[in-house]
Amino acid sequence: MANHIVLFEPLMPANTGNIARTCAGTDTVLDLIEPLGFSVDDKHLKRAGLDYWDKVKINYHKNLQEFLDTVENKKNLFLVSKFAEQDYTEPDYSDNTQDYYLLFGKETTGLPEPFMRKNPEKAIRIPQDDSHIRALNLSNSCAIVIYEVLRQQNFNSLEKTHMYEHDKLK
C-alpha cells in the first residue's frame, strides 16, 4: 500500500517542488487537487523538484470531491490544519498494509471551512506558537507529518544508506 501527501489547490510552485522531492525520497504518492496556482511546466516548480520528477507518482484530481471518491478507507484520511484539536502524532499510522492520506490546504486559506466542519475528527495539527507566525511553511509541514507516519511504520519502505568506510564519522 502507499502513503499519500495530498495538496488542495496549491499556489506556490517552489512549495510543490520541494514536496515532490520529499515524496521522491520517501516513496510517497503526491496527489494534487486542482486548480493549481501554477503550470506544472513552471520553471520554479521544476527547479525545486530538480531531477526527481520522474521518481514521483503524481495523481491529478479535478476537485476535492473527485479526490475523495478515490479514497477507499476514509478512516485513513487526515486533514492537516492548525485549527485541529488532535496532534499529528496521536493517530496510529503503523499498519503499512493500508493507504494513508495526508490532506494539506492551500497556502493562503487552508482547507475549505465547510469541509473541515463536516470532518473535525479527521483533523490533525502540528503544534506551533501562533503569537509568532501565522502558519508553518507547507513543504516543511508535509515533511514533518510524513516522517511521523514513516516512523510509526519503522521506515519500512525506505532503504538505509550505508556510508563507505572512509566516510564514517569518528
From TrEMBL:
Location relative to the cell: Cytoplasm
Cellular component GO terms held in the UniProt record: cytoplasm
GO biological process: wobble position ribose methylation
Gene3D superfamilies: 3.40.1280.10
Catalytic function, reaction form: cytidine(34) in tRNA + S-adenosyl-L-methionine = 2'-O-methylcytidine(34) in tRNA + S-adenosyl-L-homocysteine + H(+); 5-carboxymethylaminomethyluridine(34) in tRNA(Leu) + S-adenosyl-L-methionine = 5-carboxymethylaminomethyl-2'-O-methyluridine(34) in tRNA(Leu) + S-adenosyl-L-homocysteine + H(+)
Claim: Iron-sulfur is one of the keywords in the record: no
Listed GO MF terms: identical protein binding; RNA binding; tRNA (5-carboxymethylaminomethyluridine(34)-2'-O)-methyltransferase activity; tRNA (cytidine(34)-2'-O)-methyltransferase activity
Residues in the signal sequence: none
Coiled-coil ranges from the UniProt annotation: none
CDD domains reported in the protein's UniProt record: SpoU-like_TrmL
Residues the entry annotates as binding S-adenosyl-L-methionine: V80, G105, I126
EC number: 2.1.1.207
All residue ranges annotated as the tRNA/rRNA methyltransferase SpoU type domain in the record: 4-147
Keywords: Cytoplasm, Methyltransferase, S-adenosyl-L-methionine, Transferase, tRNA processing
Domain of life: Bacteria
Alphabetical list of InterPro entries matching this protein: Alpha/beta_knot_MTases, SpoU_MeTrfase, TrmL, tRNA_m1G_MTases_N
Name of a matching Pfam family: SpoU_methylase
Protein's UniProt keywords contain Phosphoprotein: no
Function: Could methylate the ribose at the nucleotide 34 wobble position in tRNA.
Family listed: Belongs to the class IV-like SAM-binding methyltransferase superfamily. RNA methyltransferase TrmH family. TrmL subfamily.
Protein's name in the database: Putative tRNA (cytidine(34)-2'-O)-methyltransferase
Annotated source species: Lentilactobacillus curieae
